[in-house]
Structures are given as C-alpha cells and as structure tokens.
Amino acid sequence: MTPFDATSLDHQPGATTELIDHVARLLPQQAPLHAFVHHNTLHAFEHLPFTVAVETAGRQFGAEPYLPEAAYHRLRADGRITPADLAAVATGSGAPGADLRHGGADYVLRRLALDLDLPAGPALSWTLHETDALTRLHPQVDAVRRRHLLASGAERDLLTDLWARLRAVPVPTDPPTPRPARPRDRILEATGHDPDRLTHPLLIRFTAAYLDQGIAHWAMPGRDAGMLAAFHNLYGASRPVEPFLRDLPALVIDHTTAGRQAVDVVEWALDALGVLPGQRAAVIEATLLSLRGWAGMVHHLHRRPDRAPVSAPPARLTDYLAIQLTLDTLAARHITRQTLGPGATPADTDLLLAHHDRDDLGLRYEAFVLAQLMPVDVTALADPGVAARWLRTVAGCPELTRRRLLHLAYERRHAVTVLDALSAHQPDVGPPRAPAPAQVVFCIDEREESVRRHLEELSPAVETFGYAGFFGVPMTYQGLDDVRPRPLCPVVIQPRHIVREVADVQASDWWARRRAMGSWRFDVGSRTLARGAAASLVGGPLHLAPLLGRTLFPRAYHRWERRATGRQRPTTGRLALEFDHDEGWVGPQPGFTVAEMADIVAAFLRTTGLAGRLGPLVVVIGHGSASSNNPHEAAHDCGATGGGRGGPNARAFAAMANHPQVRRELAARGLPIPATTWFLGGYHNTCDDGLAYYDEELVPAASREAVARVRTDLAAACAHSAQERCRRFADTPDHPTPEAALRHVERHTVDLGQPRPEYGHATNAVAVVGRRWRTRGLFLDRRAFLISYDPTTDADGTVLTGLLMAVGPVCAGINLEYYFSHVDPTGYGCGTKLPHNISGLLGVMDGQASDLRTGLPWQMVEIHEPVRLLLVCEAEPRQLASILDAQPDLRRLVVNGWIRLVAWSPTDNRMCQWRDDGFVAYRPESTRLDRVTRSADAYVGRRDPINPVQVIAGVAR
Questions:
Q1: Residue 854, CA atoms < 13 Å, CB-side half-sphere
Q2: Helices and strands: H and E segment counts in the chain
Q3: Which co-factors does it depend on (predicted)?
Q4: Helix, strand, or coil here: 478?
Q5: Where are the domains of the chain?
Q6: Residues of each annotated binding site
Q7: Could you give the CA distance from residue 469 to residue 111 in angstroms, rounded to a whole number?
Q8: What is 869-905 written as a DSSP string?
Q9: DSSP character for 220?
Q10: Which residues fall in the annotated binding site for Zn(2+)?
Q11: What is the pLDDT of residues 62-96, one digit of tens each?
C-alpha cells in the first residue's frame, strides 16, 4: 500500500471512489471456504520492512505483531533462544541515553535477558498501594546485588528514596495520541453508547442474506439490481421495529428521488456525520475495517466472481459502504438525540470528549525495578539529570521493542540451526550414481517431506522429487460428481483449458446425475416448513443408525459406507484431455493440444532435472485433505491448485507424459522419454494418509511388478509418516506403531467431533530449492518445502526465475498466514472452532451473528512456531541477486524481510544470507550433527519440535 495525500484527494472530483479503492487494499483477500488459499494476511503492507509493517498494522488493526514477551522467555528457557542470539540482535540497537555505566546495547542485552512480569493498569495501582513493592527489594534481585545495594543503608530508606527521585523527574514525552476519526468512536467515548451495537447486527444479517450461495430457501428479492438497490427495495417500504431505523423509509425515498448513486450516498452520509475535509480517508478506512471480514468478502466476490461457490451477486464495495454509513448516520442521530436532546447532532458529542493525561506510573515502576536488578549506581540517581537519563534509557526499550528483538533472536536461532545442519550434512551425501528403478514426484508441500524421507529409508533405491502440486497443468476441472467446474491451478493463473471426467458407461452417468438431483431436492425440501417436518418424521428414524455409527464408531462406519456405496475407486470415468479441433475456438478450450501437453511435460523434465535420466516408472502424486465437519477443509488442500485437490492434475500429467504423440513431440525437441518408462498418477490424502491411483488398468504388463512394489513401499511410508505426525496430537499414546498411528489418523479424518483432523502446514518454516541429494537423509521434522531444481542444467537462470516467482510468494503466503494466525489468534486468525457456524457457504461466524472470521482457527495453528520462511536456494549469490533485480515483486519480499533468503552454492558448501541490500557470507556456528539410524529414533516419544538430525538409512543409497 503506497502512501498518498488523503487531504488533497478530499477536494478532488471523484475522490471518494479513489479513497474506497485505496482502502479496499487493506481488506482481507480470503476467498470463500471451498476455495480457501493461503495468502499474506498483511499483503497491503509488503512495501514496508517486515518489523515496521507488523507494528504499523498492529496499531491499525488493533492486533499483535509478535508473541507475548513471556512466550519468548519460555523459548529462552527451552534453549530456542540463546545468549548468543540476544547479543547478536542487541548489538547496534541500543536505547537512546546510555545506562549509567554501560552502553545502550549492553543495557538492551541485559533487559532482554530479564524475565519480568510487571503489573500494569489497575493491577499496578493495587500493587503500589496495597503491597510492600516500594519498600522491599524485588524478588529477582540476587544475593550479590542485594549486598551491594544494602551496603549504604536500610532497605526501606533506600527504596523509598529511589522511588521519590524517579517520581520527581519528568518522563519522556510521546507524540499526542490522535483523536479517533470515526464518529462512532467519538460517540462511544462521549456517551458510553456504541452505535455499532445497533448497526452491525442488521448489516451482518443483510449482507449474509445478500451474498448467500443457496443455503436460504428464498433468495433476497431484487438482488440482481445490486446491493444498495436491494437494500432500498427491502427497507424503503417497511415499518422498522428498531427505533433508530424510524427515519430509514423516508431517507430511502429521499435518496431515490434525488437519484443518488452509491458514491453520492457515501458523500451525503459523511456530511451528515460531520466528517471534515481531510478526515474522509480515515473515516472510510475505519468504517470498512469495523467489519472487515464481510467488507472483504463483498470486495472479493466483485473482483473474482468465478470463485463464488455458486454465483456471485452484483456486489460492490461502494454499495456496502453506502449502506453501512447510512445505518451509522441513523444510529448516531438516535444516540445523540437520546443523550443530548432532540436538536443534537453527532458533531455535538465532540464537546463531551475527555482529555486524559499520559499515565507514566508503569514506566517509573519499571525503571524502579530495573535499577535494583541491573548494575546501576543507585546513589547517582539523586542527581535529577541522571535520573532523567535513566528514565529515557528505560523508555528507549519498551515492551514492543523488546518483543521485536526477542523475535529476531528467535528467528536467528532457527536459521542457525537449519543452516548449520545443511552444511554439516554435505560431507556424507552425494549425487545418485545410477537411474532409480522408481522415481516418485510429490508436491513441494512440507507435509510430504516426511513421506519422502520414510520412503527413501524403506526403499533406498527410490528417488523422490518435489514439484508444484498442480504439476504444471493449469486447468479448470469437473469430475463426475462435481456440480460445477473449478480451477485447479495457482490463483494468479486464469486457466484457459477445461478438462472433464467422462463416464465410461452412460447409464452409470445417468444414475449418478439422478441420484445427485434427488439428494439436492431432499436437501432443499428439508429446509421448508412442510417438507422439512415430513422429512424429520419419515427420515429421522432412518438416519439414526448412520448417526450412531458416525458418532460412536466413525472409522468402522466410514469403511463400511465406502464398501457399501462402491466408493473405493478414485474414479470411474476417463479424462477428456485431448483437444484436436481447429484454431479459432471461442471460450474455455476443452482439453489441451499435443503441443501444449508437450510444453507441460518438457517444463517438468527440465525443472526437476529428470530430463535424460528417467527410470522405468515415474509415479506422480497429487495431494489434498478430506475430513468430516471441518469448515476449513480446503485450507488443508493443495495451495498450488488454488485450494483444490491435486489428484486430477497428477492424473492428467501422467496421461500427457504417456501420450504417444506427446512423446514424439518431445523427442523432436531433444527430450526423449524411453519407451520403457511409464507414468502413473496418484493421490495422497494428507489427513488419513491414504493413497489412491488412477488408470491402473492402463499400466502395461512390463510395469505392473514395479507398480506393485512402489505401491507397497508408499503405503508403508505413509504409515510411518502417520506415526511421525501423531506425536503432535495430544490424544495419541507416546509410542504408537505405524499401523496403530494409521488407524488413529483415519479416525481423526471421519470423527464428527474432531477439531484437529490434521495440523496442515502448522510446522512450515523452511523452503529448499535444489537437488534432493543435498537434503536426502536429513530429518527436517515436516518443516521444509522441498522444491526439486537442478542448477547444472540452468546456466542462464531461466528455470530458477520461474520457480522463485512461483514458490516464493506461494510458500511465503502459507508461512505468513500461519504466522499471523498464531501470534494473534483473534485479531488475525478466526479464533477457536467451537462457536463457528458456516454462513452462506462463504465463511464462518462466531455464533449466529458476527463479522465473517478470516484467517485460520486456533486448532490449526496452536503447535506452529511463528518464524518467517527461510528460503534456501541452490544458486550462486550473483545469480540470485540478478534475479531479484529483474523481478521487483520478488525483490520486495526479500529486501523488506518477508522472506529470509539464503544462497547455497551448487559447487561447494558456501552459504550467503541476504542482509539489508546484499548477500553476506554465512559462517556455521557448529559443525556437529546428531545421527540416528531411522527417523523414528528421532521422534518416537517426543512431542516438542525437533532440530535437524542425520538419518543414516536415508543417506545410504
């Protein structure tokens, strides 16, 4: 978000529309639930350095930028922040006004190391008046310091005198706090009555009904005319019950008679509320942010109507703002008349605003305690000038500054741990000596890191690769059971191709459609008065047994249901993949041409380094997550497919790579695929660790034995991966076998009462772009996105540029959404799942009415360690720097610190970290790397995060 002169815009024609468009950038960009895709929560602040951005946004949104200070001290006690880290961040960041005998950096270092829980607000007042805090030394004063302080006098006299000196000197002055711009805030402060309590319930009900995607049996009348027109139609001829809405019908008639459009209504309301020129931008911003979830959804559906679950009504943010400001105006008039008299206006409340002096007791008490704990010459504080300097020193390292530095120390320890492990691991690994009998390609998702590692331990001859989970196939896809097509590609791509699954047997297709239609009619009818009552009487007893089964025996019932309904197979049709029509096709293209398919396969071979070294079997595994009673299910799906499931992409890619004409085209380009190589598509459910494979009936006889062997190895790897991730679930035993763990995650998947079907990306912290052999055999605790890239085949960096432009923003978006949802679960996340209700298939609300909650629920992020993504790229610093210079969007993320970038030389083990405006050589702090025989030796019996270790079984090949 770039700064602009709001005051000058207030006096320009059309400025209101421009102001609204600018404020819209602050709103959440979260899509409806079915298309949930991770993104940077503070996307509008990426032009600022990370620490500046999170603190600025924290003030703007009333949210937290970092963890609480006590949380960092717990991390320090656990060894996840060391004294070396504190010293590194404190150097050069000293507070103004040095400590009496030490430099500012030394003061900051000592202050960071102190775990102080000082009271504030009413608790501080009670402490000062009701306890002996001002006459007895603080409990954390050690024996040596105690003797030193009491050498010159009695304890009570010393402390009483110290407190008197600190109370006598003036405190450092802060800039005056600006008065709230939004009229609602001034009315609340002046009268104690909150206009939002009148307006928000109505605005939430109306917006939810207007945007509804088919949950309501009756659609809102007049919806096609637009949001403001529908509001006028609904309330213009009504007799409102709420007293504050008494003037609404007349006001609607006035707006209609005057021919006011939405922007005119906004300007009328701002004038009616007494908003002065120069304040309009702040008022519009505060108004939209007061219900930013609903405002963001209105704006999102206007920009991306294709992402609506059913269809997007013509909603515009200007209409929404006009409605909200109209209601604000009516509520403000009602409250001022009730409190100030019949002739009062909202502007009159300014006369009642109280002006409070700055409360400085907290700062003085902190200086009082620190003078006891730190090596300060207390007697020198008798000089008012020295005492004033001491107060400035303490004020120079307030809580927010300490939290920032502690967070930087925390992130530093994480980076050092990972980079030291990568460096120490290199002497024991090397490139593969021969093509593998099977090569398995997974999504880059960090949840697949454990599956890949276990597969390599169980079958050392197998090679694994990481590729973006849409596998380069940008398509809109519609399966047999899908109501409508949906994009399966990154959200920044608008797919031009549509691929449909076609039933092999038309009769089965007809039956599936009839069954779906009957299910839809029953669902709609069950929400009407007559048919709903009949459905309850007739269908209630019939649903009792399934309900008991799903509730009491969820895993067993789910397995029985799949067998009974014949849903064991992942597909019953074939893909209509090939497009062979003449040029000039209008609209979405059904399928891909041979040349387009060859482009997709060629990009895959070059990027992964598989060109020229393909084995007899290549298995391509897409992924997704299926769970019961989980509104945020799509948040566990594949981000590379736009919040969809990557199975169809893997299937389509395998079909392309097996296509005879595609192979002939690739051979002509110098990228031959051996006739003995077969590609097999598959799907991994990351929730229950189940696997499914596509088009197995097409596998040639020569490849069937290899397919059977890989299937067995992959099933075992998934069971071990289930065992590994079960250690983070509180309801599992400490030492489950892989088989028991697999049963446990299967139950998690289908249990209606399970708030944690899986933890998703909750451990993400690292992304490694490079050859797999450099990380193979390194236990990374499911924290690393692993992106396959061979720098030896990309001299000009073209492939690397494309990779970084994709994985940089995507992985950073995942990482940052988890970061913000963890550091402030209610401000940036959507809080706990327990009170959530789905609204209109769009999002969740707390209870029956609240703002549309954005971000991630606490049950998804509770185990997350909030550190910024560490992107380690196997490339020379000079090449990476040139890519950053040519790609301003990527450079902004790196230079402003939203991503921590490391260049890892392909020719040796040198690493360079990006610092400020260039790369700086990294020198490992430790060359020691713990070793275990298998991954289980590292994690069995552990619940906490585990530092990288070397797995001998994974290294051997």
A1: 25
A2: 35, 21
A3: Zn(2+)
A4: strand
A5: 95-174+359-396, 183-352, 437-504+572-758
A6: 443, 445, 623, 638
A7: 46
A8: -EEEEES-HHHHHHHHHH-HHHHHHHHTTSSEEEEE-
A9: P
A10: 443, 445, 623, 638
A11: 999 999 999 999 999 999 999 999 999 988 543 33
